[in-house]
Amino acid sequence: MAKKDLDITELSIWNDATKMLAKAKEDGIETAWDRLQQQTPHCQFGESGICCRICTMGPCRITSKSPLGVCGANADVIVARNFGRFITGGAAGHSDHGRDCIEALEAVAQNKAPGYTIKDEAKLFRISDELGIPTDGRNALAVAKDLALEFFEDYGTKKGRLAFINRVPEKQQHLWKELGIMPRGVDREIAEMMHRTHMGCDNDAANTMLHAARVSLADGWAGSMIATEISDILFGTPTPRKATVNLGVIKEDQVNILVHGHNPIVSEKILEAVNDPELIAFAREKGAAGINIAGLCCTGNEVMARQGIPMAGNHLMTELSIVTGAVELIVVDYQCIMPSLVQVGACYHTQMVTTSDKAKFTGAQHVKFEMHNGLDQAKRVVRMAIERFGYRDASRVHIPCAPVDMVTGFSNEALLSALGGSFDPLLDAIKAGKIRGVVGIVGCNNPKYKHDHCNVNLARELIKKDILVLVTGCVTTAVGKAGLLVPDAISQAGPGLKKICGALSIPPVLHMGSCVDNARIMQLCALLANKLGVSMADLPVVASSPEWYSEKAATIGTYAVASGITTHLGHPPNITGSKLVTDLAVSGLNDLVGGCFLIEPDPFKAAAVIDERIISKRKALGLTA
To answer: What distance in Å separates the CA atoms of residue 459 and residue 391, rounded to the nearest whole number?
Structure first.
């Protein structure tokens, strides 16, 4: 049966997106939505997690007529193994990012990274003091070397305890030990999951799921947290600053470079090169008014939070940014990068440049970035972009809108400063019910949903209920475009939240960074729990990822749940083929760790369910609902 033509107005809530989708259709460009339609209906065995490809006696798929795989594994075991490996992929991605950051810190400490420096020495010394590294009378580079070594040990097996575990409330630590899910080392937990899920190993679904929780905790309290803290040390801890967002940040009269991926090690140097006077002069020689840099996805979040660099779009806007016809170069590092960007770019004049050996794309040009040559390579890349400006076809250029203002950069340090140096005012507001709870909305876009419909409407509904919203990653672009990341958005908040945010001159939705920076939210929850003398599971706090798609998002959700924070998802992982695993995820984990998954695709219904959860937590603490 022939596929129906896509109704563009039903694909996204945004004007810039629908205009570019219409232009893509006119220009003969295939997008993620077209490919989704081609792939629909999806394989039901894959969607429910009951297809096993772990050995070559299969692949096996479970049905009522064939309830066991060739080896004898049932649906519960197969689903748990698949989910465990899915979680492990996400943990590996975030934690390998963290490892790259440790190597960068070590290179700076050893004077092997010309052009890279320690931007936040105060944080370097504060983190080192926290971890018991001597700092008195020592210079920053010597301390940084020891800190890098401490973090490297978090990836091994010898120490058996993560550096930041002391941040976790004692009640939570005791529970993790009892359940056997206390993370011991990032690489150890990842390797053990791959071993456990090999044929003939762990064939107890509940046991596999518990180790999935352990793997995710190693990511949340080590890999991601290390990436966040080191990025702050090397590039500066974010503070509130103004920025702009949507495709209107692309400039028709300038050379446009978009940075995309997750790691600021590359993007910070591209930004430095863009401001080089010689390169600006070269761009003007080529007929451009200047050089413009903007961000996509999490690399965009990184440079926006620290430098105020504008944000062009989130995950589903990446192809559409090229369709403007005005992008000379997209520079990528790794993660969440669609291979289709190469093909879409080839239909215009846009060159894609890869910078990491672990993320090469066929058809892209590879310019390897290393700590010893970062600025030189960045200048080379910017020069390539300037050269491409001459290939631009002005008749195909269309910038669909004007940019929207936003305020970004609410690290925990910045939030603490806004509160006058203590989190007590935040706790007092929560106790008094002026802020009834806190929800972190994080994660992705998924073309199965109307683009950003769930992300934006969930945030709007929650702030109406006096619930403070914290955002990271691709949700940031959504709520920014919706006008929720400016102080004026308090007009949409409930009376209590309006009063608190108005007094502090902050938005009711706060941007806390990229996806790895969910570690900031975890640390904030731990700080509040420790102040109250309770576990994180007792807090009126919920996590949400309405439009998620990636392994990393599932890992984030799992480490939130394992830390005691109930987590809302717009759709379930591929686990529905096992009643045991599904029941454990949506209810059983609550009895074990104090949190579970809530599944609800409708953002308005999800807001109501989340509110009920917050009410129950408030009542248990003896607070008014």
So the answer is: 42
Q: pLDDT, tens digit, for every residue of 351-388?
A: 999 999 999 999 999 999 999 999 999 999 999 999 99
- For 136, other C-beta atoms within 10 Å of its C-beta total 6
The model carries a pTM of 0.96
Give the span between the Cα atoms of 319 and 32, in whole angstroms.
8
CA distances from 386 to 87, 396, 532 (A): 41, 18, 55
pLDDT averaged over every residue in the chain: 96
With H, G, I as helix, E, B as strand and everything else as coil, classify residue 332: strand
Say if CB 513 and CB 228 are below 8 A apart.
Answer: yes
DSSP assignment of 497-552 equals HHHHHHHHT--SEEE--SGGGHHHHHHHHHHHHHHHTS-GGGSSEEEEETT--SHH
User: Residues of 444-474 as b/e, b for ≥16 C-beta within 10 angstroms?
Assistant: bbbbebebbbbbbbbbbbbbebbbbbbbbbb
Is residue 120 left, alpha or beta, with left meaning phi > 0 and alpha meaning psi from -120 to 50?
A: beta
Residue 256's DSSP bridge partners are: 292
Beta strand 291-296 pairing with 311-313: parallel
Q: What is the pLDDT of residues 235-281, one digit of tens each?
A: 999 999 999 999 999 999 999 999 999 999 999 999 999 999 999 99
Instruction: Give the whole-angstrom CA distance, residue 301 versus residue 511.
Output: 9
Continuous segment of H or E residues that includes residue 567 = strand 566-569
CA distance 437 to 160: 35
Compute CA distances 325 → 258, 292, 293, 490, 577, whole Å: 13, 14, 15, 36, 44
Helix, strand, coil percentages in the chain from 3-state DSSP, rounded to 5: 55, 10, 35
- 527, 562, 532: which is closest to 176 by C-alpha? 562
Kindly tell me the burial class for residue 398, based on how many C-beta atoms sit within 10 Å of its own C-beta (0-12, 13-18, 19 or more): middle
Listing from the earlier edge strand, what are the strands of the sheet with 566-569?
A: 509-511, 467-471, 437-441, 541-545, 566-569, 597-599
Q: Kindly provide the residue ranges of all beta strands, DSSP E only, lying in 108-262, ordered along the sequence.
A: 241-245, 255-261
Distance CA 279, CA 68 (A): 64
Q: Determine phi and psi for 220, rounding to 5 degrees.
A: -65, -40
Per cent of the chain over pLDDT 70 is 100
Which residue in 76, 329, 323 sits closest to 204, CA to CA?
76
The CA distance from 365 to 286, in Å, is: 22
∠ CA 463-464-467, rounded to 5°: 40
| 485/407 Cα distance (integer angstroms) | 6
Whether pLDDT at 1 is above 50: no
Q: What number of other Cβ atoms are within 10 A of residue 361's Cβ?
A: 17
pLDDT tens per residue, range 303-318: 999 999 999 999 999 9
Give tens-digit pLDDT for 404-430. 999 999 999 999 999 999 999 999 999
Q: What angle do CA 488, 489, 493 make, to 5 degrees?
A: 125
Sketch out the chain's domains with CATH numbers: 13-61 (no CATH), 75-235 (1.20.1270.30), 241-396 (3.40.50.2030), 409-620 (3.40.50.2030)
DSSP assignment letter at 293? E
